[in-house]
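Onboarding guide, step 5: your first structure request.
Type a short instruction followed by the sequence, for example:

Predict the 3D structure of this protein.
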Amino acid sequence: MLTETERTTPHRWAALGVLCASLLMVGMDLTVLHVAVPTISRELLPSGAELLWIVDSYALTVAAGLITCGTLGDRFGRKRMLMGGFAVFGLASVGAMLSVTPVQLIAARAALGVGGAMIMASTPAIIRALFPDSRERALAVGLWTAANSVGVSVGPLLGGVLVEHFWWGSVFLVNVPVVVLALAGGALLVPESRNPRPHRWDAVSAVLSAAGLAAVVFAFQQLGEHDGVPSAVWGVGLVGAVLLVGFVVRQRRIADPLLDVTQFADRGFSVSALCIMGCYGAYTALLFLLTQRFQLVDGYSPLRAGLALVPLAAANAVGAALAPRFAARFGHHRGLCGGLLLCALALAAFAVFGATGNYAALVVVGLGSGTVMTLGSDSILGAARLERTGEAGAVQETAFSLGAGLGLSFFGTVLSLAYRSDFDPVASASAQQWETARSSVGAASEVAARVGGKVGDGLLNSAEHAFDTGFAVATGSAAAALALLSALAWRALRVPGGKHEPR
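The system replies with structure tokens like these:
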């Protein structure tokens, strides 16, 4: 005899397959480009700041759009938002594949982020509608979350295979058939749902948050672009900070805020979100820095660079799987702080001993980050009141995406600053050749190959030395930041009887 759930949603597991495939694609696009970055650097010759925008405009746009897209999906229909997200993602993938300038690629990546936000914001509510039974829903959410983690982990390896055998645009082309299948499956299998009493969407808040975030990130990335920073850049950064403060003030005053900032009054909630942002930011930034190091300095092929990152992805999955057991035995706060400390020690090892052959540090940072991401997410949901778990989930997803974008922006800019300042003069190189080589290690490789001879060798040697310095400074900075974050979390989360302690 059919249950009520089987009668109302007979194709729910097939529909879940569509949702998981879409999240696999969204997660994959966060990291699949990393292995292609050196090739893009040689062919499009982006500046250091443009290169950072190419990579992290996707994550930042996802972070800025998640809550807005969730609110609009509640009002106008989650299936409609999901299908629109598929279409935007597919069209943006084609645009990225056909880009011939850095600015075009940045715009396409931002459009991909819009599509990703539409997809990610819609799927949690659709899963709740598909699986009213709590036991089935727990399994469905687990599979859906695992799809995103698998996508993030296999992204560099898939990117390496595609760049090795085709061209850099193929890392975007692979999205198109997935989008086509998702559109067909979504139209047939995913039911429409909406909130009968949706919250009012506050357009002013959406503009304040997106514009403020973009202005602050733009200003910060310009620090690594020039030897001196124009006053206009500082002005843009100040305006961005004012907009973000205005966003927070507005959320506290309006009846239907885009983001309920009162949730952050709970230390367990706010510190856990901060831990996720810091750890995931360092993790994704490390992926970006390592792929550049492996290919542009160590001479790895794209495929070999992707394979070199497999231990990191595997250890991350192991850490995520073992985290609940560790927390059950020793407590959430010890697991969270211990994971952060492991990541800090591994990043310090990268700073001191370098990346080449340092597989022990790769494994340790993977174990630590997997632990932090799992326990941090659980702490956020555990700290929230039952009726606010949906909003807490949105904050959790935003913390991941915002951490990825800001982490890459921060540590990438630190590397760019150190790279430019430590780039040695090269005898007989023209001022233009030297200045171009100072913009990024990819540009230095292209200039060195074009010039050749002793000048080319000198530029390449200076670039490799400067990149080593920048890599050490960036990973050392990340280690210090995570060590401080671990100490903060230990102090904040060990309070007896808090909501954030293990249940």
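Each response can be followed by summary notes, for example: The chain is about 80% helix and 0% strand.
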